[in-house]
Design brief:
With 349 residues, this protein is of the alpha/beta class. It folds into two domains: 2-158 and 331-348, Rossmann fold, CATH 3.40.50.2000; 178-327, Glycogen Phosphorylase B (Rossmann fold, 3-Layer(aba) Sandwich), CATH 3.40.50.2000. It contains eleven helices and 13 strands. Strands 3-2-1-4-5-6-7 form a seven-stranded parallel β-sheet. The chain has a six-stranded parallel β-sheet with strand order 10-9-8-11-12-13, sandwiched between helices. It is globular and about 65 Å long. The protein starts with a strand and ends with a helix. The relative contact order is 0.13.
Length: 349
């Protein structure tokens, strides 16, 4: 097979799409048959990200309107649901990964939602096989878009935690046991509900991720509960720092309102620490029975869930093992094999 994996979204560092493209590409390189030709469509700055021995197709702005001409291309895999790029010819099979339909929940007006929905539908129409990263996203697609009889599969994302056991100089060194939260600091992450659970304990809260104006909302909530001195919003962190914070945290809290998958959840569970999630969107599917859940965001209720969850975790010696086993259910190797099976089916059909 001749395959192109669209990794153009890697041009945005410290994002979930960057991680998805980079990790899937690395795993796919190990998965394809030695007779296959695998190429990577990338922004110019990312050429060579997997080594000079790989084949790269450099993105150009004209590609947004003129498909990339690649002779005898079997598979073009768009890894972003709103991608403007495609390539190949009449016989090329198109695979489209859909990470979420967050515009349904984030856009403030019906007009904006409909504009995004139409754009998404146009891209969906050119796909031969649609892949959702969770059952939740698949159900969203089937409910809000017209797949026109095309197959829709679920291939869960993988995750990888690279160890840095000798690293011990994080951006911020906590002064006491801490709760950790991680993700782009925007309203849909719902981080502002977390400070309330600090009011009856001595934990710090550390939030890592690219910061927006929403950080002020979190700080205001911290002041409301007189815990502002224990809430630290530290911005984006390196892989080394992320490893350190996850390894040393007391618990991970992620009350997100909109997640297609929830990669930070898997990274946190890898360390066998207690994980507290919202019951919304894909998070119960990913966290399973091994996570603790907030069914609403009433401050007293959340505090109670957190206290009972920490007590349960500390009293149950098997809990850590169960959490670690849950994390091992997801891998980039499994993810790449899932996509490769779809490529093979399409070419043979």
């Amino acid at each position: 097979m001749k395959i192109v994996l669209d990794c153009e979204r890697m041009k945005y560092p410290f994002t979930g799409l960057n991680t998805f493209c980079k990790q899937l590409a690395a795993a796919m390189r190990q998965t394809v048959d030695e007779k296959d030709q695998l190429s990577f469509f990338v922004a110019p700055k990312d050429e060579g990200f997997l080594g000079k021995d790989q084949t790269y197709i450099k993105q150009h702005f004209i590609n947004k309107v003129i498909p990339i001409q690649i002779k005898d291309l079997d598979i073009w895999h768009s890894t972003y649901q709103l991608s403007k790029y495609t390539g190949g010819g009449r016989n090329t099979k198109k695979v489209l990964t859909v990470h979420d339909l967050n515009y349904l929940y984030e856009k403030s007006t019906a007009k904006d939602i409909e504009r995004y929905r139409r754009k998404h539908q146009r891209i969906l129409d050119r796909a031969d096989h649609i892949v959702a990263i969770s059952e939740y996203v698949k159900n969203d697609i089937l409910h809000h878009l017209d797949v026109k009889g095309k197959p829709v599969s679920v291939v869960h994302n993988g995750f990888q935690v690279i160890g840095y056991p000798d690293f011990n100089t994080p951006t911020y060194s906590p002064q006491r046991p801490y709760i950790f939260a991680m993700g782009t600091v925007v309203r849909k992450k719902n981080f502002h509900v977390i400070p309330a659970i600090l009011k009856d304990n001595d934990y710090e809260l550390i939030i890592a991720g690219s910061v927006s104006d929403y950080a002020e909302v979190i700080k205001d909530e911290a002041k409301k509960y007189n815990v502002a001195d224990r809430v630290k919003i530290i911005g984006a962190v390196s892989d080394e720092e992320k490893y350190w914070y996850l390894k040393n945290m007391a618990a991970f809290v992620f009350p997100s309102l909109a997640e297609g998958f929830g990669l930070p959840v898997m990274e946190a569970m890898y360390f066998g620490k207690p994980v507290f999630l919202s019951t919304l969107t894909s998070l119960p599917e990913i966290g399973g029975e091994e996570a603790y859940y907030f069914e609403n965001f009433d401050p007293d209720y959340m505090t109670d869930v957190f206290e009972k969850g920490m007590s349960d975790f500390n009293a149950n010696q098997e809990k850590r093992i169960q959490i670690e086993e849950r994390a091992r259910m997801f891998s980039w190797e499994k993810c790449a094999q899932g996509y490769y099976d779809i490529y093979t089916q399409l070419v043979r059909s």
